[in-house]
Structures are given as C-alpha cells and as structure tokens.
C-alpha cells in the first residue's frame, strides 16, 4: 500500500483549482527575464540566435533552446504563486533528476540574499508541460526569482498571483552586465539536483550578478561561430570551460587560444577566466596534457601583457581529501562538486571584477 501511495504521489499532475488567481505572461511587464536571447521578441525561449546555433553545429542547434540559466524576477505580495509552463517535450536523462531537467526553482530575496524557498516539481508522467502552485504563510511583499529548467525547452511560462495582489518590477542585479559562461554539460548544469544548484546560479546569488549560460552538453568545441558570437556580447566577464568537450587534446590545442584571442580582440578589458577540466584523485595523462594546453593559453596571454586573464586549475576545484565524492558518475559533478566549483570560480570572479 505504501509503495502504491508513493507512486501516485510522484506521478500526479498538479491542477490549480483556486478561482482567484490571475495568470500573466512572463514576457510582459513588470517581469524581468534574464539569461535568455531576446525573450520578448522570440516565439520560444532560447539562449542564442537561430543563425549562430545553426552555424555552430547540429548538436548545438538541438540544445540552444534548453533554458539553462534562464530566470524571471518580480515582486509580489501574493500569498501564493502558480506557474503554467508549456514545453514541446520532456527531457528524461539517466543521470539527472527530472527536477533538474524540467523543473523550476523559486528563491526569495531576504536581507540582500536569495534564499531557496521551494521548487515547482514536474510530475514524472507529464507530456507537454505542467502547472503547479506554492503557498506562503502570509501576503508579505517578496522579491522573487524563478530559475528555468536546465535541460528542457520551454515554449512559454505564465505566473499566477492572487487577484488584486501587487505585481512589481524586481531591482536589477548589482552587476547588471552578465558573466558569460561557455562550456560543456557541466556548464549547462548536468547533475545539479535542481536548477538553482548550477555553479553559475550559485555564483550569481553570491555576487548578485547576472549571467548567461552557454553550456552545451557534449557540444562545446570552441567553434569559430560561437567564439565570434561571444565576442559581441556585452558582459562583465567571460568564463571559458570547454576542455571536456574538445574531442582530443590536439583539438583543444588548435582552438583554445584562438577562442581566447577572438574574444579578447573585441572585449578589451573584461576579466577572462580559463578553466581546465575538473578532476578527482586519478587524473590521467590526457587530463594533464589538456591542463597544460589551457595553462599555455593563459601563460601566452599574460606574457603578451594581458593582466586580466586568469587560470582556474581543474585539479584544484574539488580539493584533495574527498574529491572523488564530488562526482555523480565519475565525470559530472554532483551538488557538492558544483558548490566547490562555485566557491573557487566565484572567488576568482569577485577579485577580478573588483579590479575593473
């Protein structure tokens, strides 16, 4: 009986029965959308222009509508918040939770810090989206941030609040120009337990900075089209983390410094962080070779007079004693690993941004 009840609990779809809730399209004021490409103009949410995705690779063309890094922010005194999300499909990944791939996280700003409140949890048998509602204890005015799914497309999202409730614009980030992250499935957020646990999201909350997530699972290979696009973005910093997706060390050698130079040519003054792949206790010869390639880009940049380029050593991201416990599957970090990534990368970013 217990197993049957639990199965029904996890399979159920939420239906919002309250009659005094009005839904609003997040593309309309006063909602603020972040981390997405021209969300008010595009028919569906995406992270890149169509032309850039198509010019990069077939695989990126399949992933760029995944909404990793997307957020909506607003202020309300509603005693409840509901969502209605439409999705063209539901992503099921063997090594990720459905909450990570297709759920939404809600954070409330308290004492200048975003605090996790709850998640809009998708039912396992949904087919084209879902609706859900959460309730607060009272109708106090709250600053809300909702994080979009990390590995699913979202065609549209509506936010529901009580009839007559205030609905106001959220203040902007203290660092409004986004940090741009480019990299692999780890960058996209693989194996985070939920959307707010990507390492970029944790850094964003810690530094109060906007960000754009250009992580593409298995598909970040330093392509020219992507490098040129990144070079045009208005940003406060750039984090380059695609070591894992370079098919060979030779490919990494042929593309890594070229990508750095392409971005630096247009982005003269921003901090650029160069990451080597995170490793555990048993780093391979290939890991060492790739680390040396990334470090070589850094060394050459510094030797050429670039004092705002920074090397983040993947060998040191997880610490030493329990580094292997930071992985979910030997490759992708779990929440502990992502947290430690956010600490080291976030510290480097904080110091670099203070010097600007």
Description:
This protein has 356 residues and is α/β, with parallel strands linked by helices. Helices cover 30% and strands 24% of the residues. It has ten helices and 15 strands. Strands 2, 3, 5, 6, 8 and 10 form a six-stranded antiparallel sheet that branches. Strands 12-11-13-14-15 form a five-stranded parallel sheet, with helices on both faces. Strand 13 (237-241), helix 8 and strand 14 (272-275) form a beta-alpha-beta unit. Helix 2 (50-56) packs antiparallel against helix 7 and helix 6 crosses helix 10. Mean pLDDT is 93; it is low at 1-12.
Number of H- or I-type helical stretches? 10
Cα(first) to Cα(last) distance is 61 Å
Give the oligomeric state of the chains in this entry, treating copies of one chain as homo and distinct chains as hetero.
Answer: single chain
Radius of gyration: 20 Å
Q: What structural class do the secondary elements suggest?
A: alpha/beta
Give the low-confidence spans: 1-12
Whole-number mean pLDDT: 93
Strand fraction equals 15-25%
The profile of the biggest β sheet is:
6 strands, antiparallel
Order of helices and strands: HEEHHEEHEEEEEEEHHEHEHEHEH
- Portion of residues within helices: 25-40%
């Amino acid at each position: 009986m217990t197993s049957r009840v639990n199965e029904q609990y996890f399979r159920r779809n939420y239906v919002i029965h309250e009659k005094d809730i009005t839904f609003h399209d997040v593309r309309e004021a006063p909602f603020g959308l972040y981390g997405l490409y021209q969300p008010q103009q595009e028919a569906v949410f995406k992270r890149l222009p169509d032309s850039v995705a198509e010019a990069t690779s077939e695989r990126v063309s399949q992933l760029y509508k995944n909404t990793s890094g997307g957020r909506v922010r607003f202020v309300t005194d509603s005693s409840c918040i509901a969502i209605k999300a439409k999705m063209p499909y539901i992503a099921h990944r063997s090594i990720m939770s459905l909450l990570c791939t297709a759920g939404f996280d809600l954070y409330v700003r308290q004492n200048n810090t975003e605090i996790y409140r709850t998640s809009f949890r998708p039912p396992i048998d949904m087919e084209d989206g879902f609706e859900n509602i959460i309730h607060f204890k009272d109708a106090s005015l709250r600053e809300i941030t909702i994080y979009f799914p990390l590995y699913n497309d979202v065609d549209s999202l509506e936010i529901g609040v009580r009839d007559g409730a205030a609905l106001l614009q959220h203040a902007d980030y203290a660092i409004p120009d986004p940090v741009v992250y480019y990299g692999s499935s780890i960058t996209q957020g693989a194996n985070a337990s939920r959307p707010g646990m990507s390492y970029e999201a944790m850094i964003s909350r810690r530094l109060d900075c906007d960000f754009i997530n250009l992580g593409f699972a298995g598909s970040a290979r330093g392509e020219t089209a992507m490098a040129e696009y990144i070079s045009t973005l208005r940003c406060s910093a750039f984090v380059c983390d695609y070591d894992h997706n370079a098919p060979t060390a030779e490919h990494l050698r042929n593309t890594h410094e070229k990508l750095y130079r392409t971005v630096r040519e247009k982005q003269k003054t921003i901090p650029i962080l160069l990451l080597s792949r995170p490793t555990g206790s048993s780093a391979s010869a290939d890991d060492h070779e790739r680390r040396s390639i990334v470090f070589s880009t850094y060394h050459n940049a510094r030797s050429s007079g670039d004092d705002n380029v920074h090397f983040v050593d993947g060998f040191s991201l997880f610490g030493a004693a329990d580094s292997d416990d930071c992985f979910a599957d030997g490759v992708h970090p779990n929440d502990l690993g992502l947290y430690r990534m956010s600490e080291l990368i976030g510290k480097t970013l904080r110091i670099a941004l203070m010097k600007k």
